[in-house]
């Protein structure tokens, strides 16, 4: 009997949940110069705190999110490819409403209580407007990703049609565009970060994830220990390799990390909590650095021990996400018609 091994919605949410936890680890522990408070490390690697290297590995979350976005957008449109531009604008409106709710919850607080900080000290009306429409991320440096993702959504109708006509040529062009940005050392441009999104489209078109999954399932000694060993090997390769920029390695190994991590969560019976985190991943991403960097760092690092700090930050951001979702639900019920669902849990998650 044929079993479809392609990513389903629940598996996509699990992968997003894993990615957002990696993102939190990245921003908690990869930048010690941003921290005013120390923490108790649980282990060491390469004569350094182990959390520091886990934090740097956590940067792979960007490639995972972009891969899943490209994959999901292709899968959700391949059976009904009409009105792609309209669908992209609908998705964009959902994302921006979500962003604006978070913006209005957190930015006025910063302007009022932290107005003398470097982030807000030279604020102007133009700065406010540019940040409000996501043209600038000066209020929250980690919001740089939103501008790139908006551009990917806007060009998706073109890229989808290009992949339908000739996926190999389209991926080659994407690779050349990426290489041009890479060779110039421009690692934060849309030209650089479009590649994992395009790889996600490519995987979806040719069902490569299903092919990978079938091979992985066929391994006789495929158990929890094997999953952990594969992830440790990928971690070590990413940490020690001098071949490419680390984020370039992320784009290569992201599909494998997704596959093995989902297998591991299934075996550990942790799929439900990670799927829940995945459903709230956008809000967690948008809000977490206000807690761990800009406003409430002393509260986040109060537990002292690294793993407790991470769990505490997860709890704080999930509670915040519940508030944000409630506000969006209220907007849905008061302002928009029933066929205009602005729930951020559905944004880009159709697989």
Could you please describe the fold and organization of this structure?
70% of the residues lie in helices and 1% in strands. The chain is mainly alpha-helical and 351 residues long. A two-stranded antiparallel sheet has the order 1-2. The C terminus is likely disordered.
Layout of SSEs?
Elements: H1 9-29, E1 44-45, E2 48-49, H2 50-57, H3 60-77, H4 84-113, H5 125-132, H6 144-183, H7 190-206, H8 208-217, H9 224-240, H10 246-267, H11 271-279, H12 281-294, H13 297-300, H14 306-334
Antiparallel strand pairs: 1-2
Helix pairs in contact: 1-2, 1-3, 1-10, 1-11, 1-12, 3-7, 3-10, 4-6, 4-12, 4-14, 6-7, 8-10, 9-10, 12-14
Summed up, the helix count is: 14
Rg result: 20 Å
Q: Note the beta-strand portion.
A: under 5%
Structural class: mainly alpha
Helix percentage range? over 70%
Q: Total strand count, please?
A: 2
Largest sheet: 2 strands, antiparallel
> What is the H/E string?
HEEHHHHHHHHHHHHH
Residue-averaged pLDDT, rounded? 90
* Strand order of the biggest β-sheet: 1-2
Question: Poorly predicted ranges (pLDDT <50, ≥5 residues)?
Answer: 347-351
Oligomer: single chain
Shape: globular
Alpha carbon gap, first and last residue? 22 Å
């Amino acid at each position: 009997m044929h079993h479809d091994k392609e990513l389903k919605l629940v598996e996509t949410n699990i992968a997003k949940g894993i990615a957002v936890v990696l993102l939190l680890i990245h921003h908690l522990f990869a930048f010690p110069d941003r921290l005013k408070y120390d923490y108790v490390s649980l282990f060491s690697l390469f004569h350094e705190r182990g959390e520091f290297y886990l934090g740097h590995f956590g940067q792979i979350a960007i490639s995972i999110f972009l891969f899943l976005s490209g994959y999901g957008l292709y899968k959700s449109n391949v059976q009904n490819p009409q009105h792609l531009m309209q669908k992209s604008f609908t998705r964009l409106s959902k994302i921006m409403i979500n962003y604006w709710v978070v913006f209005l919850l957190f930015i006025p607080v910063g302007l009022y209580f932290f107005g003398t900080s470097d982030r807000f000290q030279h604020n102007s009306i133009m700065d406010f407007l540019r940040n409000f429409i996501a043209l600038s991320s000066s209020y929250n440096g980690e919001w740089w990703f939103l501008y790139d993702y908006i551009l990917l959504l806007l060009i998706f109708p073109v890229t989808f049609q290009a992949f339908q006509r000739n996926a190999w040529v389209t991926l080659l062009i994407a690779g050349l565009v990426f290489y041009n940005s890479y060779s110039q050392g421009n690692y934060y441009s849309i030209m650089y970060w479009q590649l994992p999104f395009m790889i996600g489209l490519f995987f979806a078109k040719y069902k490569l994830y299903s092919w990978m999954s079938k091979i992985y399932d066929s391994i006789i000694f495929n158990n929890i220990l094997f999953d952990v060993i594969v992830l440790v090997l990928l971690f070590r390769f990413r940490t020690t390799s001098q071949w490419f920029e680390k984020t370039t390695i992320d784009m290569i190994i992201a599909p494998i990390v997704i596959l093995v991590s989902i297998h591991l969560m299934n075996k550990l019976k942790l799929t439900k909590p990670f799927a829940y985190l995945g459903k709230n991943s956008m809000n967690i991403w948008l809000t977490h650095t206000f807690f761990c960097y800009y406003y409430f760092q002393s509260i986040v690092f109060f537990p002292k021990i690294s793993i407790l700090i991470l769990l505490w930050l997860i709890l704080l951001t999930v509670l915040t996400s519940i508030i944000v979702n409630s506000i969006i639900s209220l907007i849905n019920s008061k302002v928009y018609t029933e066929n205009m669902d602005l729930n951020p849990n559905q944004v880009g998650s159709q697989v």
